[in-house]
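Good morning N.,

You mentioned wanting to compare the apo and holo forms, so I went ahead and generated the holo version with copper (II) ion. This is what I fed in:
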Amino acid sequence: MSSPEHIHHPSPAQYWKIAVVLAVLTAVEVAIYYIHRDFDLGHFNTVLLLLLAALKFVIVIGWYMHLRFEKSTLSRFFTGGFILASALYTIVLTALGVIAIRGG
Amino acid sequence: MARSRLRLVRLGALVAVTLLLGACSLISSEDQPLTTFEPAGPFAERIDNLFWPVFWIAVAVFVLVQGAILVAVFLYRDRDGSKEAKQLHGSPKLEIAWTIIPALILAGIAVPTTAAVFDLTECGPDAIEVQVTGHQWWFEYHYPDAEITTANVMVIPAGQEVCARMTSDDVLHNFWIPALNGKRYLVPGQTTELRLQADQPGEYWGHCAEFCGLSHSLMRARVQALEPAEYNAWLASQQAGATLPVEGDPEYEGYQVYLNKQCIQCHTVRFEDDSASNIIATDAFNGPELTHFASRNVFAGAILPGEGQSRGDALKEWLDDPPSTKPGSFMPDLALTEAEIDALIVWLESME
Amino acid sequence: MTELTHEASLEHAHPEHEGTGVDDRKLGMWLFLSSEFLFFGALISNYLLYSNRAGFPGVYPAEIYDIPFTSVSSFVLLMSSLTMVLAHNAQSRQDVNGTRTWLFATAALGAIFLGGQVFEFTEFIVNFDMKLSTNPAASAFYVLTGFHGTHVAIGVIMLLSLWGISRRRGGLSDKQGLNLELVGLYWHFVDIIWIVIFTVVYLLSVPPA
Amino acid sequence: MTATAERPTTTIFRRPSSTKGLWSWITTVDHKRIGIMYGYAAFTFFIIGGLEALLLRIQLSQANGEFLTAGAYNALFTMHGTTMIFLFVMPASSALMNYLLPLLIGARDVAFPRLNALSWWIFFFGAIFLYSTFIFGTSMAPVGVDGVGGVDGNLAPGGGPGSFNFLADSPDGGWFGYQPNAGPLYSPGTAMDYWALGLQIVGLASLVSSVNFLVTVLNLRAKGMRLLRMPVFAWMTTITSFLLLFSLPIIAVALFMVTFDRQFGSLFFAANAGGDPILWQHLFWLFGHPEVYILILPAMGIVSEILPTFSRKPLFGYSAVVFAGAAIAFLGFGVWAHHMFASGITPVAQAAFGLATMTIAIPTGIKIFNWLGTMWMGRIRLHTPMLFAIGFVAMFTIGGLSGVTHAVVPSDWQQTDTYYIVAHFHYVIFGGAVFGLFGGLYYWFPKLTGRLMNERLGKAHFWLMLLGFNLTFGPMHWLGLQGMVRRTWKYAPETGLEPWNLAVTVGAFIIAFSIFIFMINWFTSRRRGEESGLDPWDARTVEWMAPNPTPEYNFAVPPVVTSLDHFWHLKYEEDTEGRAVRVDHADEMLANIEHDQLNPVSPIHLPNPSYFPFFFALGLPIMFYGVIYHRTPWGKALILVGLVISLAAVIGWAMEPLEEPHGDDGGLAEHDQLELAEAAVSPEGSDPVLPPAGGETESSDD
Ligand code: HEA
Ligand code: HEA
Ligand code: CUA
Ligand SMILES: [Cu+2]
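and this is what came out, ligand included:
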């Protein structure tokens, strides 16, 4: 489709570059996983891995799904759903985690 | 027009009568043994003290809103010759007022609520522990210090805090003695706590409040609060085993039925003579312990004996066919003969 | 909210309707996907809850993960997002052959990912005796990854349908081009869910001590 | 009536073309007809659910009642709650939303007409599936259970041995199906599977329509209908749709988990194997609490339409009412654990959820006070719709206030699981949602029929229902605080609860009688009611600019909206005091509007009917029957058959254009042509070369 909204979209070359970035990030993730197995990174492990995942997540949504280039209405609904889900389930898990400790 | 106003008046009268009736029975909530309005201990009282102010706030809001509706309808009714309305679109000032005022009222309610939640949740350090296990459809009580187990009637000392540590053997149950505290779930695989305290000796009624299957409605509870001295005596008597009937005793025949009619598969009885005791492992399927059966004034999930029924008659009804009294009961119909039942009753009645 | 109002008031741009200016179907797809977050969120939460509970019989999923294997299949799925977006790009340039090739490549990568999942499940069930009914952690693992796999499978079917249409009709009409875009959105969404699953469920999950 | 909706005769596929008879209803994609079908189905389930309630009440009218068996009682309250919530209030709201949403925003249809038909058929088959448990359900383990279901022997509860009457063989886990009681171990048999899968299907229907409504509102408003000019009912529909969109996936997961536990041996809620029953409660109420606002917000929207019309005054604080609705929805996602105050969650969580719950009283209060502000200084006309709207405000407030007493956590430890809760939620649902829905039916009846309902019967209905309602649910407050637990088949005479229970039962029959009057009114007025004309209530919003009964195309001339309450402002001006003055030519103008709307200048093309939504939906229950019996060969076959039907329907759907090509406009509907023009000028518009036809294969991804 050649409608005006697509004009700003990245070119195939850029898509390839983004893919390389994604691949590298994945490789780093796996590397961190193995490093952590041998040298305990403690909480760093969790934080780093979550950050990397978030980065990949944002890149795919922003560039491959073109959310960056869409009307803000769309991103608002979509991120709304994401934030709602994260918040709700965090609370649920907190509540249940405590129960788990008490329940043994 | 006039006619429908008349109807309104009539309706008003009706509402008034209903309220009046309500008020009357408020006074007579004594013969309602499950009432929440007669707290008998500090925990229930704390809740009661929290309920009433909130209730009166609610009444005030109720009167305000209903009053405004009635006034508006009477004042601004479209009558012949009434003018068209001014086209008001709103008022920021009012808007702010009726956002802030409720918010303040609620903040006022929130503070004592939060305090009470924290005060009422965790058991005190000196509380006597009673372990409560929910079964479809009866409550089991275990006193870990005294190492005794009983059912349906929870005996506690008056004036002392009891900490109920609760779990369930099957599905969710919900333990509730309205005069002593609110409810708490019994969750299989988890432990929950409930603080109980009765200031005066007496009998307090309760009920399983969470739907727990077919006979949830027949899963009731009693708490018996005793003077501390009596309580200690009770503990001692419960710790003793039952007397083993010997041939010739009037109870002997019933005991034989117990031994021979599968009762021993489910019911623990501890005898003075330990070697005769029949103990069901706690993780096996079990029914209420019968060692001191006759020391309890109610049985079978506190539904028997029914109003005006003697315990003997109630036992007769129960042993004849438990599921017909309590649908789905896990105590099956054992096809006992009348003679066997009578014999069992004699034996069971002897187990004080 | 205010922004919405503002946009909607660009009356000259919308002679017939007030609207967002986003195509109906695309808007619908985004809305649907936003609700899918809550779907997968619940499943991931279940896994997080149970995978950390001690005392279950049988193996925990985290004890038997084959991280190198899963890394590869994650990579495959990630790259399918690239081919997907290339297909979309080709379509927007009216490049019929490119569209077809990349569509097929995406479907193929998706199928490889699915194959990997089938292999993984079989491995877990046969070699490690971890079944759906082994313990709640296993239940949570299978149901989560299973539902994700189902989403991938539906995506593969849709991609292959588009590919088939393109072959039969010598290219996709612009209307189908929009379909391609919608399928693409769905596909990327399934990919980002896997990004989360890979990290949270595979890399970060440790069996309880 | 000259030109109306024109249907093409030459088509590529043979399309359904009848406009009368059964097939026209099965294949219709008209939002109004779909709304009507939703409405009749919902009302039927109201009667069924009501009859179930009456049976419950007969049982409880005496202490130790013997009218029902325990199993039947449990099945009845489960099915009563499930029916009333999922098969009555939700579809009844859906009925009004379907019928009215496009009219309220000045559109010809929803964004995806066929998807709309799909929603309805999914709902319909889901409901039938759920109720077929009365015929097929069992409370015993089905044959061939490989160690999955059921306590052995004759000890299986949930019906129990010997109770093979059909009621005792029906779902009996309560409407929130708490685990593990509703799980495979304690509710063996198939009844709870029908329940879980039935709700799954019904939920899917709502999910589909929520997307549809949202896109409709966001993209199809009439010219000038800015978001903050939409009627409040359209707003509440939007907000409700968001609630559905975000809460349904959660219950979908929860129900899938139960189904997996019951059918495939997973252990999510199996407490004996480490599963966590509390997880179910979180997931259920995470959905369940937003759900209660899904029930009430549409009714709040209806009331916000009725009160201004009959007070002859604009809605007081329009934007505050709208934002309060949004705030209720938003906050509604953060309070679910107030249903679990007694479950043993931590004191921090209890306090936090208690406080969060209280905050909802603030936006709700804003609404109540703005409604009062609307009536205040108005010129109130007490027609039947207005009576119901006022009844709503009065009765809902009572229920809301008892809700606040539950939010006081320690109080709730006393109240939870008693009739005090039952009183609360019937006050908010019946006193709120149901009063609101009835108000809406009386109000918009002319749009359906071109006639008015009988006022005298309407008023009799209202006063009797108000009386019966308060007699039924008022004493329940008292009963609950006197210790009557809910879901209780029997209560002991010593509890002293009997007289009040008798009053409740009498009240329930008074309600039933009032509903009977309503039915008489409805069916007689449909044919013989007074003709309504264009604007029977001197209304304010644009749906009244479409003729009554509504023609298939809604508006021959879509309105161009210049203000909130656009229609009113066409008719009225304000004098110096700000009072409404009817403009001189108002009546003439109304006649012109009616004439123009009835006589389109050129033919209006509407989406064509389609078989495919019906068949797509038909496949689902067949598949789900198969899931329940998947251990048998014919069960597996059913799954396959259902899958094939649905898939075939999807393919057919994808190949079938929404509208057949028309000779006169080059294959494009007028609607699309205009959109085309729009796209050409708009930088963000869709493809300028091709029509972005709303809804070609829109469901291909669902
Ligand atoms: C239409 C449905 C509906 C609605 C709108 C509500 C509204 C509310 N509900 Fe209700 N609720 C249910 C349906 C609904 N509920 C159902 C079905 C259940 C039981 C489920 C089951 O167990 O089967 C339930 C159960 C339930 C519980 C759990 C009880 C228990 O099981 O222990 C609680 C606890 O907090 C609660 C609270 C509230 C509150 C605070 C509101 C608030 O939204 C109310 C707000 C309104 C007002 C407060 C009135 C107007 C306001 C003013 C006039 C302003 C001034 C007011 C003050 C300053 C106080 N509800
Ligand atoms: C929309 C929601 C809704 C509605 C409208 C109602 C309406 C009614 N409900 Fe309710 N109810 C629930 C939702 C609802 N209910 C829920 C969610 C539960 C909890 C379930 C659970 O615990 O799992 C519940 C539980 C519940 C209980 C508690 C059961 C228990 O805990 O043991 C009771 C008891 O009295 C009751 C009574 C009634 C009555 C008398 C009506 C009446 O208002 C019904 C009136 C309607 C009619 C009577 C219609 C019949 C009309 C006719 C008969 C006309 C004549 C027709 C012909 C001749 C053809 N309901
Ligand atoms: Cu135990 Cu109800
Ligand atoms: Cu709630």
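Residues 1-7, 98-104 of chain A have pLDDT under 50 and may be disordered.

Happy to go through it together on a call whenever suits you.

Best,
F.
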